[in-house]
Design goal:
By secondary structure, the chain is of the alpha+beta class. About 45% of the residues lie in helices and about 15% in strands. It has 32 helices and 33 strands. The strands form 8 sheets. A 9-stranded antiparallel β-sheet has the order 18-17-27-26-25-24-23-22-21. A hairpin with a 5-residue loop joins β22 (about 515-520) and β23. The longest helix has about 40 residues, at about 800-840. The radius of gyration is 36 Å and the shape is elongated.
């Protein structure tokens, strides 16, 4: 979680208290005299005077973070309210309170209040620990110190410092006039973002001069869009006044981290008006399918409780004050509903989460949602992104295509020779050379085409070369001499770094860049200087980026552009090879970019610049006006080349996908890449097996086409589906049910050209249509920056770890919780059955069989440790679970916890409770206290033996738990003389009676278990030998 700042945990609620500061925008700190001034108002645009906070027009929220759910006064009421708003907790509270009424009292008050208090205490301690953790994290963030230029405002940050508020970038110490941000804690993207200061303030001699000028920032009202910003910067004391447009490139949003240099900024938004806060909703606590199933079983038990109570009163013919008798029986049989069930399961989840984090074979795994580890054991559909999830997001340049000729890795030396020959001839030949041979002209033509393509790739990007000390050469000297060994490339995209590294390998090296210029080095060591006139950054909407540069040596102005083929096809001049070659390269699994250029005259550029500046200064519809002006240039551009880079598969993706497939999990790949690229990756990763057919869903645009294509798809069986985002949208619009029904039958589905909103829609539809559990997997650079990983339930460092997380930890968590819940229910039903038998024998009297500490000790120190030790049980070793993923498939049907298994445990409980109670009644001699001694001791021993019968793989802590519980019971007999005859339990008569009753209650179950394993063994038992 990095700094632990504004990362949304599904179990945490992030909020910012609506406090305010006098400083607000324009500076950072200060305070207002009262909190009333910052009541929630409609967000409004604002004018922030630089260094003059007294000129602000309104109060703004205080800039502090508070991720706590409660404060000192609301903690206890809030926790108790959250517990008692659930029916069963409220039910136990009402039972305990009823003991204050004399007519309803069945025993000592602590009999009911101590168990309830224990459950509440565990919950309060857990919540308090979480609150303290949140408080310490908040305190650490809120106590960070930032440097202010003066008492009047302006903040300075250094490398690796977190930005504390939404700001406008004014100055940087970097010589290139820009800085990089790490935004992974804001938008989930690992790529660095380039940010540019306001050019007017960057030109000032020193940072302190910022407060000597008369200037202000006009900013739009606060909103949730972290990818766009509209504002203007105005300096009034210059002649003429300076107006500059501000966009997303000039912003420093809160939750980002400065990656390079020292920056100075002015605060615009604070507190609840921050972009990061406005994008943070109060996440709902996730309730797993397992918890819902347990709640359903508990409701059945409640129904049984009511029925048994009514039967008891009915057998008394509703005599006397029968309604009081019903209440007394409800109290008497209240153990049917185990109060300790919820706390046992919650503690089990904590253990499972701890085991996952401690697993050395999946290092770095983070469990953010500790309430749903059992869900991992029942996943039916896995939806995964491609880039950065199945692939490494580390690009390798593979192909340069010029239309008539293509260069692969094995022919890059030819590209290098072309580049070398161009610069060698430029240096040696006179300006005009006549009488060249045809062969030489062809050679020159090909060399110039290669050169233009390579130069375009070397110039059209947002990569900045940075020089670092390598121990031999210091930073300043390395930067001055462009030392290759000290140079690293900083960029917001790994694609761009791969392209620039490739141009370096063929002889044209990017050696320098700042806000206004680019320096390339030719193969001969000559420095080529270019002035940057305009940059049009890449966006996910435009799918392209452009740059206008002036060659300092010739004065030529050139507009270079690169982008996805779908948008570039309409921009470049007509050609007959672009579409075909893009498809060919995509089928090889390459990510394709189209590179083009357009030469501009000085007059054309000046006309464009005037219109562009005017559009950028617009406050209303700025993005539309700017796009219109840029599009006027994007016509009839000369197609230079296609580039192909490969995003290599992550380690062990193929065996992991095969494991998931064998486990019965259907994998869907959702990606924004081309259809051909996505299909190739699916085959390469073995998402689609070699024997499977692939049905490529034809592009459809209307209802009729969708109907015909769905009918064609319906006739195919056991084939993978590949569909584009556009076709998917049409199908979901007209034939949502039919499409989802067919898609769910496919062994694998690939959705390409898929928008982030469509990915979320598919997840939702799968959950609604199938009712099965889905797991969405994406890297922190996927989903195009739309809060991709901030609310993840589990975070893993590599895709291959997913196999172990599901096959081992998910399977174990589900099976353990199933066993634990059923055993806790069995423990409660046993003692309730004994109470029912006892009451029936003694004329349906509402008299408790066990009172005081006996009833409390039974569900706590006497049986709690052995029962809870079931969270350490496992049926097979982790290596076997990984080797045979088919074992996971058994869990998808929910067999470990079903109505069938529940009924079996109910019958076992009724049998054992009846045997113990009737046995004690038959074998006791004279005193009632002997019944209590015989039955209670037999009950404790039966529970301990039943745990031993249930355990499949013994752990040393299980043995300790069994011995500890037995020792606690034997030791406590000394203090239980009020309920048990201490002298009687020391006799031989007591020992043989308890032994007989315990054997009769347990031995048949041991025999049945042996016969079942002998003649109908479960699938896992065949692998344990």
């Amino acid at each position: 979680a990095g700094q632990g700042f504004l990362l949304q945990n599904p179990q945490e609620r992030s909020c910012w208290w609506p406090q305010c500061q006098a400083g607000g925008p324009g500076w950072l700190l200060g305070c207002c005299e009262c909190l009333r001034c910052c009541g929630r108002r409609e967000p409004r645009p604002r004018t922030v005077w630089l260094g003059h906070p007294e000129k602000r027009e309104q109060r703004y929220p205080r800039n502090v973070i508070n991720n706590q759910k409660y404060n000192f006064f609301t903690f206890l009421p809030g926790v108790l309210f959250n517990q008692f708003k659930y029916f069963f907790n409220l039910y136990f509270l009402l039972l305990a309170c009823s003991q204050f009424v004399v007519e309803m009292r069945l025993g000592a008050l602590y009999t009911y209040w101590v168990p309830l208090g224990f459950v509440l205490a565990v919950t309060v301690i857990r919540e308090a620990a979480e609150e303290i953790r949140c408080y310490m994290r908040d305190k650490e963030v809120n106590s960070q110190i930032y440097s202010k230029l003066t008492a009047r405002g302006g903040l300075r940050f250094c490398t690796n410092q977190r930005v504390p508020a939404d700001m406008i970038f004014l100055r940087t110490s970097e010589k290139n006039g820009s800085c990089f941000l790490r935004t992974d804690q804001l938008d989930g993207e690992t790529d660095w973002k380039l940010r540019l200061p306001v050019s007017c303030t960057q030109r000032l001699p020193t940072a302190s001069d910022l407060l000597q000028i008369r200037s202000y920032v006009y900013a739009e009202e606060p909103n949730i869009d972290i990818h766009n910003f509209v504002g203007t910067f105005t300096r009034e004391d210059s002649d003429p006044p300076v107006n500059e447009s501000l966009s997303i490139e000039n912003t420093l949003w809160a939750s980002t981290v400065i990656a390079s240099g020292t920056v100075v900024g002015v605060v615009l938004y604070t507190g609840r008006e921050l972009r990061s806060v406005m994008n943070t909703s109060n996440p709902r606590s996730k309730i797993g399918l397992f918890d819902l199933e347990v709640n359903c079983l508990t409701k059945i038990l409640f129904g049984a409780l009511v029925v048994v109570s009514l039967v008891m009163v009915a057998l008394q013919h509703f005599a006397g004050r029968w309604y009081l008798q019903i209440i007394r029986f409800l109290l008497l049989f209240s153990n049917i509903i185990p109060i300790s069930l919820r706390v046992n399961l919650d503690m089990g989840k904590i253990v499972y989460s701890w085991v996952i984090r401690r697993d050395s074979k999946i290092p770095g795994t983070v469990v953010r949602s500790s309430t749903i580890p059992e869900q991992l054991g029942r996943i039916s559909y896995l939806l995964t992104d491609k880039t950065g999830t199945l692939t490494q997001n580390e690009m390798v340049f593979k192909r340069l295509h010029l239309g008539t000729v293509a260069y692969g890795l094995d022919s890059m030396d030819e590209v290098q020779s072309h580049i070398f020959s161009i610069y060698t001839q430029q240096a040696q030949e006179p300006p005009a050379v006549k009488g060249l041979s045809v062969a030489t002209k062809v050679r020159r033509t090909m060399s110039s085409r290669v050169h233009e393509a390579v130069k375009a790739i070397a110039l059209c990007h947002n990569v900045t070369p940075v020089y670092e000390s390598n121990g031999v050469t210091d930073q300043a000297e390395a930067e001055r001499h462009y030392e290759d060994s000290c140079r690293v490339y900083q960029a917001s995209s790994p694609d761009e770094v791969a392209l620039v590294q490739w141009t370096e390998s063929v002889g044209l090296t990017l050696v320098g860049r700042d806000q206004s210029s680019v320096q390339l080095r030719s193969p001969g060591g000559h420095i080529l200087n270019f002035t940057i006139l305009q940059i049009f950054p890449f966006t996910y909407e435009s799918k392209r980026m452009g740059i206008i540069v002036r060659d300092e040596s010739t004065g030529e102005i050139t507009f270079y552009m690169k982008g996805a083929d779908v948008v570039m096809a309409g921009i470049v001049q007509y050609n007959d090879w672009l579409e075909e070659e893009c498809g060919n390269m995509a089928r090889e699994g390459l990510r394709v970019l189209v590179v083009a250029k357009k030469s501009l005259t000085e007059e054309q550029y000046q006309d464009f610049e005037a219109r562009y500046v005017q559009a950028k200064l617009s406050v209303h519809d700025r993005s539309l006006k700017v796009a219109t002006v840029i599009e006027s240039l994007e016509m009839e551009m000369e197609l230079l080349c296609l580039t192909g880079v490969e995003d290599q598969l992550q380690t062990d993706v193929r065996p992991t996908l095969e494991t998931l497939r064998n486990a019965g999990i259907k994998v869907w790949m959702l990606t924004g890449d081309k259809l051909e690229t996505a299909t190739c990756t699916a085959k390469n990763a073995h998402l689609v097996t070699r024997t499977q057919d692939i049905h490529i869903f034809r592009l459809v645009t209307n209802r009729g086409e969708a109907h015909l294509e769905l009918n064609a798809f319906r006739r195919k069986h056991d084939c993978a589906l590949v569909i584009s985002g556009d076709s998917l949208e049409v199908c979901l619009k007209y034939y949502e049910y039919e499409f989802m029904e067919l898609a769910c039958q496919c062994p694998a589905v690939v959705c390409c050209r898929c928008a982030p909103t469509q990915k979320a829609q598919i997840v939702r539809l799968l959950q609604e249509r199938t009712g099965k559990l889905t797991c969405a997997v994406g890297d922190d650079n996927s989903l195009e920056g739309k809060q991709a990983s901030l609310a993840a339930d589990f975070s893993i460092t590599q895709f291959k770890h997913l196999g172990r997380l599901l096959m081992v930890h998910g399977r174990n968590s589900y099976k353990r919780s199933a066993a634990l819940s059923q055993f806790v229910i069995h423990r409660s039903l046993c003692i309730s059955t004994m109470q029912a038998v006892f009451s029936s024998v003694f004329y349906f009297a509402s008299v408790p069989l066990y009172q005081g500490f006996l009833i409390i000790g039974y569900s706590t120190i006497y049986t709690m440790f052995p029962v809870f030790s079931l969270v350490l049980d496992k049926d097979v070793k982790s290596e076997v679970a990984m080797l045979y993923p088919e074992l996971y498939k058994d869990l998808l049907k929910g067999r470990p916890l079903s109505y069938k298994t529940f009924l079996i445990w109910v019958l076992i409980s009724i049998y054992q409770g009846s045997i113990i109670m009737y046995g004690a009644l038959l074998l006791f001699e004279s005193e009632f206290v002997h019944i209590v001694a015989i039955s209670f001791t037999s009950l404790i021993l039966t529970e301990l033996l039943m745990v031993a019968l249930t355990i499949q793989t013994w752990h040393w802590l299980m043995i300790v738990a069994e011995l500890l519980s037995l020792s606690c019971y034997i030791a406590s007999l000394v203090f239980l003389h009020e309920f048990i005859d201490v002298y009687f339990i020391a006799t031989l008569s007591f020992l043989w009676k308890v032994t007989v009753i315990t054997l009769v209650s347990c031995l048949p179950l041991y025999v049945l278990k042996y016969l079942r394993r002998r003649f109908s063994p479960p699938s896992y038992s065949k692998l344990t030998s």
